[in-house]
């Protein structure tokens, strides 16, 4: 099929052009949305004059999503398709699209038409002000209150407390990145909602802007309360990563000191036991001491590896560009 390639096949979209912008859209059972979505993206970006490509990442759809997307690709060379053989999840689909994207800027958005492509030019303009990542904030979210809005607000509050980033809508997929920032972020599990926090080690500058959100017209939501537990586990991982990223030398030194202290204590405890073996005591003590030395050595290395891009080591600058319902734009700084 025209412009279609499977992940891992090593193929690239046809044509030698290098687009200015790549729009990455994970697709899963969105047969009624893909045509309208393509039209909306093209309608939003054509007037901007930017050269762009669209990457639909089919996450193992079981409906006619691929067939309809392929029909579009046959007449629009700007559309390429990445196809998974089975469902891997939104983060994996997003990671694949980002890996194949060739633009200087990368846009990610959902494939259900709830994100409005008309917001992309405004977000790109904000990126041109010097930001590295622009996050969409669904001001008037069109979702069910109890099953979607309440869990989302709780999750955003918790994510803000854990990461220290006062972003109001981490779950909004509509984001715009500089390619060099997002392509260096490791994405796995359901980590796509934590991308802003994961850019902390590189000192990225973040803006959050109000965007439109529309009610789903076709298909069914792929989200549910069952994801909450997975989000909590991922949040623990993020907290650990940020702890080491912010203070790697201190973190490794503390762990090393703890193991160094436990080494002689464990040897004495095992040796004092009548049934204990001196060989076992020395083995356990030796392993703990070895790990302690290893952690002490990792501290300076990690400090160099996680050194933020900004020289003074400060956290990212986060600017919120809030859009009121009356259409007036204003900005405020976030402490």
TrEMBL record:
Coiled coil: none annotated. CDD domains: DPM1_like_bac. Keywords: Cell membrane, Glycosyltransferase, Lipopolysaccharide biosynthesis, Membrane, Plasmid, Transferase, Transmembrane, Transmembrane helix. GO terms for biological process: lipopolysaccharide biosynthetic process. The chain crosses the membrane at residues 228-245, 252-272, 284-306. One of its GO terms (cellular component) is plasma membrane. GO terms for molecular function: undecaprenyl-phosphate 4-deoxy-4-formamido-L-arabinose transferase activity. It comes from the Bacteria. Residues 22-182 form the Glycosyltransferase 2-like domain. InterPro entries: Glyco_trans_2-like, Glycosyltransferase_2, Nucleotide-diphossugar_trans. This is Glycosyl transferase, family 2. It comes from Limimaricola hongkongensis DSM 17492.
